[in-house]
Fold these 4 entries.
Entry 1:
Amino acid sequence: MDKFVIENLSLTYSDGAESLRGVNLTIRSNAVTVLFGPAGGGKSTLLRTLNRLNDLADVAEVSGKVRFNGIDLLDPKLNVTELRRKVGIVFSRPVPLPLTIRQNVSYGLEMAGERNKARLNAAVEEALRLAALWDEVYDRLDAPATAISGGQQQRLCLARVLALEPEVILLDEPTSALDPISTAKIETLIMDLTEHYTIVVAPHNVQQAARIADFGAFFLQGELVEFGVRDKIFLTPQDKRTQDYIEGRFG
Amino acid sequence: MKPMRLLNTRQQQVIGFNLLRLVSLVTVLPILGAVIYIFVRGMPAISWEFLTAVPRDGMREGGIMPAIVGTLYLTLGTAVFSVPLGVAAGIYIAEYAKDNALTRLIRIAIINLAGIPSVVYGLFGFGIFVLFLRFGTSILAASLTLSIMTLPVIISTTEEALRSVPNSFRVVSTSLGATRWQTVWRIVLPQAMPGILTGVILGLERAAGETAPILFTGAAFFLPRLPGSLLDATMALPYHIFVISTQVPGMPIQIQYGTVLVLLVFVLGMNLIATLIRSRARARRQW
Amino acid sequence: MMENSHTRRSEFAITFFIKAAGYSSILLVTAIFIFLMKEGLPALGDVDLKTLFGSRWYPIEGYFGIWPLILGSLLVTVGAALVAIPLGVGTAVYISEVAPAWIKEILKPLIEILAGLPSVVLGFLGITVAVPLLRRLLDLPTGLTAFTGAVMLGLISIPTIVSIGEDALNTVPQSYRQAALALGATRWQTIWGVTLPAARSGVITAIMLGIGRALGETMAVMMVTGNAPVLPVQWNALFMPVRTMTATIASEMGEVATGSAHYHVLFFIGIVLFLLSLIVNIFASFVSSKQRRRAERVLS
């Protein structure tokens, strides 16, 4: 089943930088789709289009169609607040909100209108367990979120998203600021989560891409060059550019 | 042949730096001197009676309590009108306004409001609040006048405080399904609060010390009773100082200094509070 | 877990209030301008232009020449600028480029204190200390002179110039200074050859706003300049009493009959002041847009 169907998507920013050019892509449900390629390829832009976070940026022109569960994602009348609860995002640098750990995780639910303390606390615990963080912070939930390590903060950011029980989780270079151990933890989490969620990741190197992908999409300067199942695209890429990038000839 | 320098560059620097030191000293000494002088000459007049009694014998004896109370009323009145409006306007500019001609117009308007002489505010206040709206010479008219004057300060400091909050918070909050107002209310505003408070206090500090705007909108020299309603006129410290130092013959100089000292302490006290808030916030910042 | 319509309605109301507040500044400036015009333009009808811009200001006998007032304001403001610019820029340069950290910690709060001093307090010190002092020192018939006013106004304008000027100097990237020093310049030469020119627009803004502040000052000048509305054209006018536009409004507004010619002329003077400060401010913000935000805060 297809979660996102992207047809001929093009996007340009106000400063004239063209970011996406005629992208055609299908994101399958309950799988890890990896967007990889050198910097400036449009991966972040595509991710932010999927939850309409690009509305906050200086976008000059968007054309094409994006369908999410069949609905027109780019419709200006779409309830974007609802959308963002279904399509969550984790950024490359962990950004804990200036609140306690507990408040960080329950933030999305509170904004959605949930007031019941018991339900909130239950949701917080469940989300922290899913993000494999509960055992490390259960005794200091009311400490400021800045009191934990970088790797823990990133898992907190993931828990924040999970608390909303989204359908899709987007991750933009989620481990670029982390050490190898934290990175491994997050990669394991990502692969475990596909059972219930659709995952779209932009990893920050090819090796990570190959480790966690079910499907891979290679982006170069705004264009989708190649798309395929993991084994195919990473071991026997069709396009020479994909092959060159994977082999490290450029980056 | 190269012209001979009178002094080499090293010597020039020494002279230059000392010149700058002198200039700064000349700038700062009068301030220090003035404050100390006022304290020294005004302290003898300060007593419990001075601060809590009403004046007698045409202000030449007794206390200045009505003026103190009046200044407090006016400061409060200014706060009531200017703070909600000013903070809201600052929020609009920092968080809601798009980068277009209308926003530029708003900025120009604020710059102009900031530059209008205080006596012109008094003129406007007199014409509109006292006469046109028939409030008469009243606390209401004076507070409204002072509020408009204080508005640009509060708007600007609010805007600056909000802008200093990192944008990543806004992006994250939005991505978790919060509306713009929810983001502002829950995350941005609390983080900007110390800066906003500092600005508010500094703005009110200025309002408390101003004379020209209240000259014909609310200040009175002698009132038999404390003001009972918003439509009553009131005594106020700045106006009181002005009158007793220029228009009352035989005014004991000590009382004059004493009154000035009270106003000075009030104003400097607010300054101190604002500075403390600012430095405490800087230390506790979470970003 | 959907937001209920109650939340959505209250959010709508709040957003409306915020937007309205945002536009309020435009509304207020326009209102002030219109009102000043409404009450001030009739002066052109009450008094013929020749008298209005004549050289006698004696309202009791119907002489409404505002020229002495304009010149009075100008004289005192120019004098203030001559005092404030060297002292203000010098102090700003000192704080930003030369002073060690501990001196900065003392100087900056002191300047802020000066900024917060009510003008009536400065006026008070003016008449009790500066005026007798100047009278004795310079052997004048009275110490209430334009010169006294200029000095006081200069002091009042200094904090504006120092704060904004120092901001401007701090914005100059450290790399500029380092490049100059690496080429063998002394710190002194770097300041005047590199840093100050780089901060030029910010410093000019600071000066303009300081002058604007001086122009609009009322109480301090009123108390020390003697309030004699005579044309300051003699060679020693600086040391004679003089009267500014602001002082005129402040001292006479309380005594006028509403709607009278005197009333209209006072508002007319208000228009002149409003326009002058408009010009100064627009020019200052034109010169620099980055310093603008901080300038609004400090100017007030």
Entry 2:
Amino acid sequence: MQGRQYDVLVIGGGNAALCAAISARRSGASVLVLEGAPKFYRGGNTRHTRNMRCAHDAATEILTGPYTEQEFWEDLLRVTGGETDEELARLMIAESKDILNWIVEQGVRWQPSLGGTLSLGRTNSFFLGGGRAMLNALYLTAERLGVEIHYDAEVIDLTIEDGMFLSARVKRPIDGMAEIRAGTLVAAAGGFEANIEWLKQYWGEAADNFLIRGTPFNRGSILKMLLDKGVREVGDPTQCHAVAIDARAPKFDGGIITRLDCVVFGIVVNRDAVRFYDEGEDIWPKRYAIWGRLVAGQPGQIAYIIFDSTVLTSFMPSLYPPIEADTVAELAGKLSLDPAALEKTITEFNAAVRPGTFDHTVLDDCSTVGLTPPKTHWARRIESPPYYAYPVRPGITFTYLGTRVNRDARMLMKDGRPSANMFAAGEIMAGNVLGKGYAAGIGMTIGSVFGRIAGREAAKNARN
Amino acid sequence: MTVCNSCRYCEGLCAVFPAMEMRRAFSDGDLNYLANLCHACGACYVDCQFSPPHEFDVNVPKTLAIARADSYAAYAWPRALSGAFARNGLVISLVAALSVAAFIFGFAAVNDHAVLFGIHTGPGAFYALMPHKAMATLFGAAFLYAVVALAMSVRAFWRDIGEPVGYRGDAGSLWQAIDDACRLRYLDGGGVGCYNENDRPTDRRRIYHHLTFYGFALCFAATSVATLYHYLLAREAPYPWWDLPVVLGVLGGLGLLIGPMGLLAAKWRGDPALRDASRLGMDVAFIQMLFLVSLTGMALLLWRETAAMGPLLALHLGVVFALFITLPYGKFVHGIYRFVALVRYARERRG
């Protein structure tokens, strides 16, 4: 790879990187992909995804009904609270229609949404076999088209002069250092959520107790190099998408199976065995997305979801079994909580519960009275042993800080000028569209749409 | 399996995962059901984000391969013979060798030298060496035994996976299972093809299995037609080249030569990560028995008008006999259990 001049260098190996590589190659460019991870871990967080949100005007084999561009836009506006670039967002939504077919042409297969508790059958298309199957298909297509791919290829420096990419310095375990020259650069190397030191800049020591749901390779090194070398940033650097996940999950890469969405069925207490937030405030997905942040704000960044035997089989199982005990005091002992404090919390909660008709699919009328904080929906007494608990910690999914881009996925420099030959796609530029919040499958839409655009534009740029 | 049930990304790949999702906890019978529903296409291994080297170490094809082989032994009838699955390659080889030897010595003992190495042609030529009645009785008994033993095993399996013994069949589920089995619907990696050696869906096992299965079916049809000829039309074997039993037999025989060779080659090349390595002997033994049945049959056809006919007939009959009596104690049972699992899956899906 050293000594050869490529038209397009793609840094990264996930959905956005591969869409960019394939799109550039199909536009006639010579393409090199540098993936920092070993082959098994290739693809960053795409490995853990399973669907993509695309607009469409009619039901299809895999989608149960139409999802118009306008509806998609309104959803995006709602989840981001307006923190989105309307021009780029509308472009992405318009392009997402065609992506449904384009991605199939690249070998990816869809399936109807069958099981699970997700009700996304109308808005989201599911990858047959999940995200790794999608990646495998993209890699096979890229290889077949003649894209050169290297694993364990960590880019440790970029030479950029006045907004123009010249070369990348690569470290590989087998052949050491190499200097790669290319006509254009596509940065698709993800965010920085696996870089605990970086997270500590905004979260302090609390970040030590964060679990990273995805790849340990998203350390944000490419993002940092680009921002340091004059690329304009976008998105709140202090923010990340966090959900509450099982505290027993591994530090990295636990993926989907450590999620817990059973807050509505019980109460949540902190290390002091005290409740701290309304467990019945909102329905999925909003509640799913706020609890990570809530737990991050508690001492020790840990909390416990407490429920009883009546609801044990009411939700999706997670990887780890709940902790079980015959009495509240015994449960407190197993969780290393103060038994008296936990008993007091549960007694007060039970006393405040008013009868109602329980229905976890709507905002029902089961609530507490005279309790602070209240549980405004789905409140039922916790009184049927055995008692159960899930310990939870913040699980970080992705970060919002990124590089500013324009409609061509071309990076913008700090002075507002477009870069001569640098493009970005995927999580590294997701903050342009998704400044805040999250909607299921939107990360994949950003990756595929802007990956395809970045590849095409980079190829055009390189061959001019 | 806990990992799978809380992930479910694979649910579109085959029947195993939807069946798994219908259960929250697994009994032994459930596990045996899932294990036999699995066609070992390998897609869920290649597509799994938690397969090794990930610390969760999820390997569904291998886990189910081990459970599957264990289930064959667990349901063997009579129970005393379940040990045959432990060192299956050795057992099958010994039975085959003894069976062939018995036919050769039997032929030699009963017939004098001139008959054994004589040239026999025309209708009834084979029966110069072994009377038709003896042949029909012996093989009929062996076949009947295999059928009874398999039926008893299936009964145990059916009961263990939670279905009523008095099942009289519902045509829809049965037809769905026949369709699934005949097309090997779930041996396709969810649509792109199977995985065998690596993460590329380049596997040809489905084609080779079709050749083997339909080859076997054609050979069976050839024998059935010949039996009808014998009893209904009083036409005795051997039959001329152009006649139906021979045509069916030759076509089937070719399938049974090419198919097993392909399967065996795939077996050697297969990624050991996906396999139950300790059961390789069982797989190889059955594949080789099918291959040998066809090889000896074809040899008999080619040289039936020479002095080699006698020894070749003994060889062929020996191999066929060994195949028959070992059917309930070898890899053959995979097809039966898998079909039964497909029937149950079809019933579950119909609700």
Entry 3:
Amino acid sequence: MNPRTKLILFRVLQAIPALAGVILVSFILTRMLPGDPAAYFAGPAATPESIAEIRAAMGLDRSLPVQFLHYVLDLFSGDLGNSLSTGQPVLEELARRLPASLELTFTALLLSCGIALPLGIAAAVNQGSWIDHVCRAVVTAGVSLPTFFTGIVLVYVFYYLLGWAPSPLGRLDFVYLSPPDVTGFYVIDALLDGDMETAWGAARQLILPATTLALFTLAPLARMARASMLQALSSDYIRTARAAGLREGQVIFGYAFQNAMLPVVTTLGMVFSFMLGANVLVEKVFAWPGIGSYAVEALVVSDYAAVQGFVLAMAILFVLLNLVIDILYTVVDPRTREG
Amino acid sequence: MALAENTNADKGQRGFGGHVLYVLSENPITAVAFGLFALIVIVAILGPLITPYDPLESNAARALQPPNADHWFGTDSVGRDVFSRVIIATRLDMMISVAAVALSFVVGSIVGSIAGYWGGWMDAVTGRFVDTIMAFPLFVLAMGIVAAMGNTVENIIYATAIINLPFYARVARAEVRIRREAGFAQAARLAGNTDIQVLALHIFPNALPPMMVQISLNMGWAILNAAGLSFIGLGVRPPTAEWGIMVAEGANFVVSGEWWLAFFPGLALMIAVFAFNLLGDGLRDIVDPRQRT
């Protein structure tokens, strides 16, 4: 078998214990609900009989391993349980809201990579110059900013003071109709539909929350880009390339850049962990109708089934994202090309 | 105990105090960080003694006043003094994050040291455990833990401690592992110490400096996480003053221009996190000059 295919298969296998751990922890979390879950699910007006009935219906009268088995089987048939407040299946609701979160997250990621990578690289190439100091200031300030606070400051400046941004309420102003559903990303869908006005309206709503999230992830990416670029520039092959008389641009972009990007791809995993958490806060600030605000709404009304469904869905998403990053790394890394 | 590691000759000549002074003079920002840190600690300790108003006392007659000479940070929607509330919240915010970090430091050190010292199946089991925590987006896991265990301040502390645990366990494991077969550890073993004594009294004290750096770098993150949890309505309940919940309450007024409600608690939060992050960088310079950036 091709060594690279083998490595990718190995990566996929490696994701299985993580997935199993995530499912086990989620199971424990759903069983840790304060008090008796059956009494809780039955509501305040329940009689002992109706509680016993619900306990049997939920399978809570069986042993824990059996309950776990049922939990896993439900999960594989796509059942994350029902929301207590709306009665709707949690998975359906999450699937409906996921595109909004993904649109926000990916836009923020593009934005932050677009700024962080050039900044980090420029700082490494001109070490000790003003751009290096700017980079250091951004990195130190960036990790100290509470996401929700940055969002509120941006709303105050760009909505209240300057009036450039629309009111921070959701994905699209009331005057527009949502574009026909193709990708679930409003901006792209509206563009596909040829409706420039709606696309512009959606983009205007998107820009502040995406900037907030991007500011948050800027710091770790810029720090890593600078560090790994510095390391690449001080290595032997760069000295050799310079000694061979290659132009500086060729040295930096042809040789150092490619090697420096590998550790950056690895940090993306950690960045995603931060981002999926920060997403919840940003969605609350901007009333963004994604899965994060769904979880916050569920928390407010103590709808713990919905919250645990959200936690599990996010964890599975995160494990899969990490898998994609690992595979990407394997594909990008030239050392895995031949065994 | 520290002597065992102090092989660096020029560092030894100047002494540790001299080295600290040298690093501080080299990087004045670290001195600023120490100053900010001292300020936060003093405010947290004095708390109620230095607030000009009762942080819980509402007064409809002076609601939503912008910052002025009487109310430096303005007043909120029910007329409470924002300055007093920001001051009084320092203690609660610090308490939550110090308790959480202390808890994950203790548990993480024990778990990590055991894994690093004995290796084998213990390492495998604890490694799996830590990996499972890291397989979650950490803030989301904290949300799930608080939702499952109940919505209280103690559970915010436990949740923050759990999501910080992996970092301590990993540092402790790595630092213990590289010293497991060091000369001083072998000498202690030869002198008749048991494994636990060697680990607890000889190896672990030498692993402390990097752990201290980790604590300080982690504090800022712990404060952010705890404030984030209360921002989305977990843990601290109104009318208690806490930075995260104050920003959340103030957020509704920002769109109509009353910026001071959310701004000052947010600023306090930012300064606290900033101070701890700078302090962590400074401590790292003192502890491990090679990692200086």
Entry 4:
Amino acid sequence: MTKKIRILIAKPGLDGHDRGAKYVARALKDAGYEVIYTGIRQTPEAIVRTAIQEDVDFIGLSLLSGAHNELFPKVVKLLKDQEVDDIVVFGGGIIPESDISFLKENGIQAIFTSGTPIKDIINFIQSCK
Amino acid sequence: MSEQSSPELVSQILEGNIRGIAKAISLAENGLATQPKEELIDSLYSHCGNAAIWGITGPSGVGKSTLLDKMLDCLRRDNHKVAVIVVDPSSPFSGGALLGDRLRMQRYSTDEQVFIRSMASRGHLGGIAGATSDAVKIFDTAGYDTIIIETIGIGQSEIEIVKLADVVMLVLVPGLGDEIQALKAGIMEIGDIFIINKSDLDGADRLHSELEYVLNLKRENKPDLEHPLVMTCATNNKGIDELYDRTNRYLTTITQNGILTRKRRNHLEHEIRVIALAKIREKIDFNSRLEAQLDGWINEILLKKASPYKLINQKINGLIKEMKHR
């Protein structure tokens, strides 16, 4: 039985810059994963419900507006509320170095800031398998 | 990751548990010929048959997802519980897929009465995925009264949706070709309801009269069935209510005149055929033998020591003999 890895790439919050998210989505497709892309301006509630319906293994959050400390942990919390413990959450975008430890403490397993080679994300996904 | 047993999954599906449904679909997708999957699907049959199954198909970029989003407006207004299966192609090179159809209906992602699931085709030809029909059964069992399947963007012959849906909506747009295209075999034959989307574009009226002509020929062959032709412009909400009404009327008609019963019998026939052929292939396990010997065969044929039909007939006959002695 071969399990395909499914990844939700989502943009919470209000910023409309999705070049990064689309780039990552495409690159992960090329790496052989099934990527669900939901577009911009998603609420944490919509992201979590989508992730559950799609039975994904990972949620990748992209945010450039600065609201990551609010919205990323919210997604993790909603997953916990629903007793979902088998989805790994990672994030990316414009995230200051100083916020990364806070996000990791709040359940975001990895943060990939701009300029990260796509290989790092793939290695991370493979290491979680 | 915890794997649930089939009985546990079945009871979760019957309760309408979202996670259970989602996990069951993954099992159907990943476990193609495994026992847990077969047990799961077998135990769903007795609960199935209550949902109306809509198929929406057409070339890529004609607006299938956007139309589907508008259909959700109508269905939710009438308080239907709706499941949506959107299929996109898998890459033949990486095996990956970018599933972007639900983006257009994401405003329904928090509606408790709507379940949207994206599916990659995973090499299955025909415009849907190998596990799409299983997903339909799972949703049917879970109490969704309307199940809509959006196919991948199709060309001329990806028509498997006709073996699965009660009603097939074929979406076209102006500018795809002249009426000769419409007379050919293939997609024009599978539509129950014909839609000209992007009706604000140049050429929409011409396409309308060309399709009317083709549909009249079709109606002559099957006078007991009307084939509605609807003009829509999904982004402006034009023609949406009409499309919804015509679809409902079509479903009522085929329920009353017995066509639906016949269709579903045909669908079951197709399904049994598919399962039987897959099982035969599995039993012979020809694939692994083929893979192991293929190189040698290629060399023989390449060096003109053998010809393909003769060689392959010989090998298969040998294989059958070997199986008899086992």
